[in-house]
What does this fold into?
Amino acid sequence: MEIKMYTFEPHGDARGQLVAVEANKDIPFEVKRVYYMYDTTPGVARGHHAHKALEQILICVHGSCKILLDNGKEKETVVLDEPNKGLYISSDMWRVMYDFSPDAVLMVMASTYYEESDYIRDYDEFLKYVESRGE
Ligand code: TYD
It folds into this structure.
């Protein structure tokens, strides 16, 4: 499985760091929505779903967490622990976010508005979906 990580150039100076992410330039889509998770209860895993159309970039802007990616054939785990690293997740990818450090803030930039009908929340349905698409 190809893991698409983006490294955003920090504009560092004596005052500290600043990272800018521009839609369609630094990442491959127009951002319609940003959401973030924090104060995650220790031991909790989130996600457990795929999408039909949504593309996302995940940045752990503080602390660390792990992302399990599963395309129906292969699984890969990615550690997010740097505030200038972004993980691209396509639709058609089962994802689980877990192992959040207590101080973790996981920010997500999303290509579409929140739309429940875009979710695939059942793993067997996901497997059938990717198979039907020949992926
Ligand atoms: P949920 O899908 O359970 O999050 P996760 O993917 O981490 O398991 O979403 C949690 C709640 O937040 C749920 O009530 C739906 C709501 N929500 C929005 O209103 N907008 C959003 O963009 C997202 C991602 C979730």
Observations:
- The chain has one domain: 4-10+22-132.
- Strands lie at 4-7, 33-37, 46-51, 56-62, 65-70, 75-80, 85-89, 94-98, 105-110, 119-120.
- The domain at 4-10+22-132 is CATH 2.60.120.10 (Jelly Rolls).
- The longest strand covers residues 56-62.
